[in-house]
Amino acid sequence: xFQCKQFAASLMERMTAQGMKGEMVxxxxxxxxxxxxxxxxxxxETGEHVGVKVGNTMYxxxxxxxxxxxxxxxxxxxxxxxxxxxxxPFNIIL
Length: 94
Prior knowledge:
There is one protein chain. The protein has one domain (4-91). Helix content is 22%, strand content 37%. The chain contains two helices and eight strands; from the N terminus they run αββββββαββ. The longest helix is centred in the first third of the chain and has 14 residues, at 4-17. The relative contact order is 0.29. The mean pLDDT is 93. Pfam families: Tox-PL-2.
């Protein structure tokens, strides 16, 4: 837990080195916590969680094997009010 930014940065670096593209997806909570229903615990103490989206599949430190984007969103609760995810495309042509 609590290693999402490092996981996402490493994955994006490997992907861009291979000429792949995707999107960095950031969830934010106005509280300091984001809850995972699957793991039945909080996954952040900063109010931010980051993953990498390729097509309709999300990859993060919780789901390194990937999970469908809609299931990922349903699993993670950001509290109220629900803020929309921030999506940042990335692709670096080498």
